[in-house]
Amino acid sequence: MMALSVSGLCKSYGDTPVLRGVSLSVPAGSLTAILGASGAGKTTLLRVIAGFEPAGAGTIELGGLLVDSGRLRGRVPPERRHIGFVPQDGALFPHLTVHGNVAFGLPRSARRGPAVGELLELVGLSLFRDRYPHELSGGQQQRVAIARALAPRPRLVLLDEPFASLDASLRATVRAEVLGALRAVDTTAVLVTHDQDEALSVADYVAVLRDGVITQAGPPREVYSAPADPWTAGFLGTANLLTGTVDARGVRTALGWHELRDAGQLPDAAGEVTVLIRPEQIALHQVRAATPRLTGKVTETRYHGHDALIVVDVAEVGPLQVRALGADPPGPGDEVAIEVGGPVTAWPAEGNV
Amino acid sequence: MVITVVVLLPVVFLLWQAGHAGWGTIWPLIFRSLTWTLLVNTIELGVIVTVCSAVVACGAAWLIERTNLPLRRFWRAVVVLPLAIPDFVIGYTWSSLTPAVHGLFGASLVMTLGLYPLVYLPVAAALRRADSSLYEVARSLGLGRVRALLRTMLPQIRAALFGGCLMVLLGLLAEYGAFEILRFQTFTTEIFTEFNLGINTAAASALSLVLVVLSLLVIGAELALTRSVAARAGRPAGGVRRYRLGWGVLPSLLLLAALVGLGVGVPASTLVYWLTQPQDLVGVTPIPLLGAAGYTLLYSFLAAVVATVAAFPVAYLAVRHPGRLARVLERLGYLVQGLPGLVIALSLIFFAVRLAYPLYQSPALLVVAYSVMFFPMALISLRASLVQLPRRFFDTARSLGCSPASALLRVTIPLAAPGIAASVALVFLSAVTELTATLLLVPNGVQTLATAFWAYQTQVSYATASRYAALIVVIAVVPGIFLSRWLDPSRSSNGGRRR
Fold it and tell me: Global pTM?
């Protein structure tokens, strides 16, 4: 069952279109990440789903119930959609205590009940119930915000870049706690983010939003290794894009023959294609006496500690980006041998960006 | 929308009133030598007071906010105290002190002392935010101390300075009591005389028209001058470093002491002197002090509530749904600021006499007049606090199941409480110290503190009058202290509550 179905959703501010026909399905109980660069329309999409902004055209269904069809008639106001909302900085009500914030959305009779205490327990803030928001750290505020959103038992929780304003060192911990709380109550959640690693590592489904259109949606592995187009490939991570030709055996590029991940993706099984090779698909070896077919010269090494991104200049191909594990990556000037492994993704060359 | 229309009614009445007298009678009344004399008086006074206030206020603000002057907190508090003393009380104390204070000189002195805080407050706020690094860059580019100061600091406070000067000019145009006491003839005193003695409404409305046109010209000039100035917000990027006065500390302290002495010391000590003198009632029935205070409190408080309640929807609309309609409504609200209280009172009297006679001389009309006069103040303070409220709070409340009305009640209004309180305090303070409209509109048989003071003052019963004046000042100081605490940046209104 789909907890949320959006179809053909359009929204403009004045003459500027922000969403141009977004279609998205979120299965019940899943965590879906909407990944997009700033200005792609992520926040607008959340605000329209939550009901803060009316849809220009298209439909939004919540659990099979139509809540907005681009017309005033039948549009369900935000307070009757039962959608929890966690804004970027938490937006805790500064005039209420932690308890007051979490109890805000409960009916008057339930505010003194056990529900608030249970939620505070869940996010590990039972000791802070009488504090005011300005007495909490950024991470604690986010946890209160998620508890507040979960209190009225929403059908769906929307999170608008909830971890973006946290320090990098804190982000991973708070993220784990918040997502743990979401899983514990078994809610459907939609998380908006511009952080590729965040989207790929925590979500069950990733939807890539570009200029008001969803370019691709699917499980993280599928989106990362088989992106819908070259732009999506580059947006999700480092990408080497090469030209190649397709025939019955597979794809041929300057780096050799490659197996195609999904041959059905190409409408015509022949002709010019653009080929994606991820940096971790390429292995580097020392040049031995028995000279392999392919060698290149290292021009740059970006050392990250846990791995390194190495730029290798290969004749007839140009610079290739390669991810190398290990304590001692090759440095600039070194000659290296190159080996490509695993199936690749390819698109017709016309689709080039 | 309805509220804005009601607020603008005085203009309509004024034009109607003039039309009623017939343009044939009005034109000769406008173009006569008296108008010319009044115009010259007003312009002379306007130039002198504005320039003096600007110089005094900028100097004081710079010394207090940007130098290492000792006792900064003390100066900050006392330098704005003249705001709590009505100008007519300042005029009365000076005039009862020495008859030398009268005419253009007296009016300039008294009005400068009474009005300079209106320039000081915005300029001090701007200086507090002004960026020191600009001054340092100017020095490093080869400018001397004074030139660097003028060329980097002046542009940063320009909008605040013009805004303050606008308030001074509007205050001058609207002032009546002080000029009457100091025997200085301006439009307001003349309109009052024409209306009160001759009941010559045609002449009164003719002069009112000129006065309104003058006020609107001032507002228009201010808009034209400040349009190009970009407002700087937030903390200065380059930090604030204070100028070290060195040997200049002593003269600076003396200058500030002289300013406070003239503006606060003289009126306060004179009031105290008169309070200790025996009562000098000569054949008049005494007006009960507490009764008058009760009426003042009642009317002022009602006006504060009415103006705040009326301004809230306009401010809310302007902040939340900024569209053309909201902008026009808001601008029109501010336009009222250019209408002297005297004109508003006269037009309301005209309205009551012609259309709603039961309202004439009723308390309701006085409260309405106060509310209309001080509507812009309520609008400004409400707007300022609503603008600081992110929309997210309202949206989040909606997503937690609140209807728009209940989100407003449970989130927006509690969070805007400081602004609402400031609005109430500001209107209350202004109404307590109001004299002109009160004199015209006060119900029959009722005396407020201001009208009682005025009655005794005109009979030269200085000692008796002083009791009413002193009580006005005492009542006005309470919301004044609250307001200055609210405006004090060191304990910013609700910024401390938010991260």
Answer: 0.76
Which one of A104, A116, A190 would you mutate to disrupt binding with B, by most B Cβ within 10 Å of its Cβ? Answer: A104
Partners of A309 in beta bridges: A302, A323
Check if the interface score ipTM surpasses 0.95: no
Residue B285 sits in the same domain as residue B373: yes
- Token representation of residue B181: 């006491």
Q: Is the dihedral of CA A178, A182, A183, A189 positive or negative?
A: negative
Across the interface, whether the CB atoms of B393 and A81 are under 8 A apart is answered no
Q: Is the Cβ of B172 closer than 8 Å to some Cβ of chain A? A: no
Pair (B411, B351) in one structural domain: yes
Pairing of strands A205-210, A31-36: parallel
What is the SS3 assignment for A20?
strand
What is the CA angle B439-B443-B447, rounded to 5? 65
Q: Measured between alpha carbons, how far is A306 from A280 in angstroms, rounded to an integer?
A: 13
Mutate to test the interface with B, among A62, A67, A75, A79 (most CBs of B within 10 A): A79
Q: Which two structure tokens, joined as six digits, stand for A194?
A: 């511009």
Structural domain count of chain B: 2
β-sheet with A16-27: strand ranges across: A16-27, A2-13, A57-62, A65-68
Contact A125, A142 (CB under 8 A): no
A7 and A119 housed in the same domain: yes
Domain membership of residue B4 (yes or no) is no
Same domain, A270 and A124: no
Whether the CA torsion A153, A157, A160, A164 is positive or negative: it is positive
CATH code where residue A322 lies: 2.40.50.140
**Grouped pLDDT means (10 residues each) for chain B, 499 residues:** 68 71 68 80 90 92 86 84 86 83 85 89 81 75 76 79 85 86 85 72 76 80 60 52 77 89 87 80 70 89 92 83 71 71 82 77 87 86 82 88 88 87 87 87 85 84 84 84 62 36
Domain with B40, as residue range(s), is 32-230
Which residue, A230, A265, A289, sits at the end of a domain? A230
CA–CA dist A71, A87 (Å, integer): 26
CA–CA distance, B1 with B463 (Å, rounded to integer): 48
Is A104 in the same domain as A23? yes
Would you say residue A34 lies in a domain? yes
Q: Which residues contact A188 (CB under 8 A, 6 or more apart)?
A: A3, A4, A26, A27, A28, A29, A30, A31, A155, A156, A157
Structural domain span for residue A279: 241-351
Nearest neighbour of B497 by CB, restricted to A78, A84, A134: A134
Residue B338 · residue B331 · CB < 8 Å: no
